[in-house]
Each structure stands twice: as C-alpha cells, then as structure tokens.
Amino acid sequence: MRPIPDEAPVTSTVRPSSIWASLLNVGVLFAELAAATEDVRALSGRKDKVARLAAALASLDEGERAAGAGYLAGAPRQRVLGVGWASLKELPPPASVASLSVAEVDTAFDALAELSGPGSQGARRAALTALLARATESEQSYLRALIIGDLRQGALAAVVGDAIARAAEVPVALVRRALMLRGDLGAVAEAALGVGAEALQAFRLEVGRPIAPMLASTAPDLDAALEKTGAAAVEWKLDGARIQVHRSGDDVGIFSRTLDDVTARLPEVVAAARALPGDAFVLDGEAIALRDDGTPYPFQVTGSRFASRSGHTVVLTPMFFDLLHLDGVDLLDRPGSERAAALSALVPSEWRVPRGGPEMLEAALAQGHEGVVVKGLDAPYEAGRRGAAWVKVKPIHTLDLVVLGVEWGSGRRRGWLSNLHLGARGPDGGFVMLGKTFKGLTDALLEWQTQKLLSLETHRSGHVVFVRPELVVEIAFDGVQTSPRYPGGVALRFARVVRYRDDKPAAEADTIETVLGLRPR
Ligand SMILES: Nc1ncnc2c1ncn2[C@@H]1O[C@H](COP(=O)(O)OP(=O)(O)OP(=O)(O)O)[C@@H](O)[C@H]1O
C-alpha cells in the first residue's frame, strides 16, 4: 500500500486522494474517477455534470487521459475483457484505503484483455481477484460496473465529449467533430488535453477507419417529412443491413452499423467494391438479400449472413446511398445533392438505392420495401447524428424496445425463456415497462433468446428471469392504449416480435416519449 502523508492539505473542491497522488507523482488515484462518476450520477443538470467531469479529466496525467476519458464514459476503452457477470458475483474483501492509480487499473485491464488460450480462465480470475482486492468498496463497485458495462449513466459519452472541450478549453464543436470522425473518446481526450485545438483539427475521415453512420428521424407521412427537411429527394428504404465500404487501391474494408469489421463475411461486396472505378473511396449503404425479381427476402435472410461465416447460400447485393470520400477529397460537408451526383458517377444503378420524388414511396412499397427516407438536398453528412436532414417514413409502425425480463415458458415452450417484458427508454436513463409478448417467436428465436437472456441474467423472482437491459427487439403492434397496470400509464396492443436488433444498443431504443406520442388523440 502507498504511504499516506500525515498532513495532506484538504480543500472543499479538491479531493485529498488526488492531492496525495500528485504529491507522490504517481498519477491520479482511481478513486477520483469513481468519486466523479458517483457525483455525476447524483447531478441532474447537464452543465453540472460537464463541470464535474471536466474537473476529473483535468486532473489526469498525460499517460492516463485516454483511459480516464473512457472510464468516465463507462467503458474500459475498446477492450474485450472476457469477464462475465458470474465471475463478479463474489468480490474479495475491499481495501480500506484507496491506493490504485488510473494507470495501474489500465495496465491490469490490458493484461486481462490479452489472456487467451488454455488456462486463461483461471489466470483471468486470479488477475481480477488481485485487482479487486486492492480496491476500496466504492472502487470495487465502479470496477464491476465498468467491466460489465453497466454504469447506468445514460448518454454519458456525449457529456464526456463536452467535458473534454471544457477541460481543454477548446470549442465544443471541434471535439464533437473529432469524435464523429474517430469515435474514440480516449484518442480525442489525448489530443485535446495534450495539444489542443490544432490536434483536433487534424482529425480527418481516414479511408479504412469507419465513422459513426448518419441516422434518420421519423415522420408519420411524406408531408411531415418534407416539412422537416425542406427541399429533398426521396429514396427507397431497404430493410437490409447497414454497410460502410472503404476501399484504398485493392484493399477493401466493410463495417457494420456498430462499426464491426464484417469484411470477411461479405466477399461479394468486396468484389463489387473492387469493380468500381475509383481508387480510394468510402461508400455508405445497405447489403440486402434480393430475389431474382428484385423483391427483398425477409430481413432474417440478410441477417443470417452476419450471424455465421459458413453455410449460407443467399447472395447479398450492395445498395449504396451515399459517398463520403472520393480519391483524396472528403465529401462529408458537401450538400446532399452534390454527394448524390458524385455517387451516380461512381456506382452503377444496379448498386444504387433508387432516388427520386414523392412517387418513390408507392414504388418502394410495391416492390416490397419498408418505406422511404426523405433526404435534404442541402444537408451535409452528419455522422452519428439522428437529425432532421434524413427522415424515414414507414407505413407499418414498429418500436425498438429493450428486454427487461423474461418468463419461463410452459407447455410446448417448457425449458425455453418465452414471454418477454418490454421497456422503452425513460427520461432518467432507466426503462419504462410497456407490456409483454411471446408472439412472433419462432423455435429458432426461442432457442437463441433463451441462451442470450441467460447470459444477461441479473436475478430471478418466481418464474421471471430479470436481465441487464441490453437486448433490443423490434416490436410490431396494433396501437397504444391507456393502461393503469404499467408504470408509463400506457401499454401496447397486440405486441409481437418482428426480429432482434442486436446491431442496436439499448441507448438507441425508442423512448417513452415516442410511445406516448402514438396514443390516439
Ligand atoms: N435509402 C436509405 N438511406 C438511409 N438509410 C437507409 C436507406 N435504406 C435503408 N436504410 C437503413 O435505415 C436506417 C435508418 O434508420 P435509423 O437511422 O432510424 O436506424 P434504425 O433505427 O436502425 O432504423 P429502423 O429501425 O427504422 O430500421 C439506416 O441505418 C439504414 O440501415
């Protein structure tokens, strides 16, 4: 244990722990991040949260900034630690005095992430116990939350982005732009706090490195959509899987909506990208399974190509709708109409999403697609944003809800987790239950969800298994009705499962506000 100076100077704003740490020149104590996180959870105003996080970020030493920013946002950076909920059920007795530094925790996480192969499970448990035994009670609960990704701070990454700007005294817009292009809080914190605005300005769209895809908001019909966008083009909305295709010379990289590298799974898309005339480009679009007559297969057919590498027979067609970079020129800030023109010049029409005027809605539906996306002609590409520049119109309404719990089935479904408890995102980072359903579940889905939900289990009560609120499921329904039985005062009528959305994090599920907006007036 590190010696503690007898007379540590204490003020009301700075925690003694960080002073000891800086006196001893050992970097910041991990307890400082745990305390900042606890404080932030208790604060309600965004400004106050940003100020508290900025203070914590400013106290970090050079070598700790990347890790520290990641931890404050609730993620042990991008490492897979291979530690499940079960191994954290029993913790060793906590240390009585804080002694862990941020850098030490980071090194321990690195070591955990590198363990693999035979015997690694035992080694992982030993390393984890050693780390936790050095942590105080509050550090233990913070470490646990970090490891299992359960900090419950809502959309904290964006707040940490603002805190980076404040701590580094650089414009927020610069930090947001760097985050959109790199998507890595740690790298952005390092640049902002280490060098400043200049380093942030140097962030560019790099061919080969995916950026967060632009998202669409929703409107009930075309008129409402056009009101949001102003002058716009209307594109078919294909129910495939989002792909971002990067090509540099012969090298091709394909990334999913969640920025996972799916190149090896889509050889036909790699071939298509290589057949295009450009030398370096970044394309945005959908990969979709189409029948010979051009109509789409159900989404599950497309989805199956992402679930496993082998045993597939159906070919996916790339259908592109945006061009973000071409031969050394970034197009992100160019108006939508200009990007669309550049796309048409690069990509033949059979690999482009049909685009036109309002008549496209009827054409898309006639061809079996789910609707249209209305796109502002003057709007730039807003990576990672769900803005007003892209607005989707789908005649059949579905909601993306989060599974909160699930009941063991009976009769034919005995042994399977069946009846799902569904929640929408609440205003405070929690979830509001809206109802239950076991409808629409095939045997394959029942088997899959049983395994998946058991891996997310937190506790049981009677025949209900409660789970970490992480799994998103797309639900169709016939309406929203008032119901005193549920906490939001509303319930879904005839809710049924359309499909699982394991490409979508719970933080992007639909909100209770959206659901309340669907009540009949
Ligand atoms: N022409 C198109 N332009 C943009 N996105 C399209 C288009 N056709 C299909 N899409 C898909 O629609 C999604 C846009 O809708 P949104 O941003 O709301 O994401 P989402 O919540 O996954 O959508 P949804 O739940 O409606 O499928 C994109 O991620 C993309 O996968």
TrEMBL record:
ATP binds at E235, R242, R257, E286, F321, R386, K392. Keywords: ATP-binding, Cell cycle, Cell division, DNA damage, DNA recombination, DNA repair, DNA replication, Ligase, Magnesium, Metal-binding, Nucleotide-binding. Its EC number is 6.5.1.1. GO terms for biological process: cell division; DNA biosynthetic process; DNA recombination; DNA repair; DNA replication. It catalyses: ATP + (deoxyribonucleotide)n-3'-hydroxyl + 5'-phospho-(deoxyribonucleotide)m = (deoxyribonucleotide)n+m + AMP + diphosphate. It holds the Pfam family DNA_ligase_A_M. InterPro entries: ATP-dep_DNA_ligase, DNA_ligae_ATP-dep_bac/arc, DNA_ligase_ATP-dep, DNA_ligase_ATP-dep_C, DNA_ligase_ATP-dep_cent, DNA_ligase_ATP-dep_CS, DNA_ligase_ATP-dep_N, DNA_ligase_N_sf. Coiled coil: none annotated. GO terms for molecular function: ATP binding; DNA binding; DNA ligase (ATP) activity; metal ion binding. The active site is at K237 (n6-amp-lysine intermediate). Residues 321-426 form the ATP-dependent DNA ligase family profile domain. Its cofactor is Mg(2+). DNA ligase that seals nicks in double-stranded DNA during DNA replication, DNA recombination and DNA repair. Belongs to the ATP-dependent DNA ligase family. PANTHER family: DNA LIGASE 1/3 FAMILY MEMBER, DNA LIGASE-RELATED. This is Probable DNA ligase. It comes from Solirubrobacter ginsenosidimutans. The lineage of its organism: Bacteria, Bacillati, Actinomycetota, Thermoleophilia, Solirubrobacterales. The gene is lig.
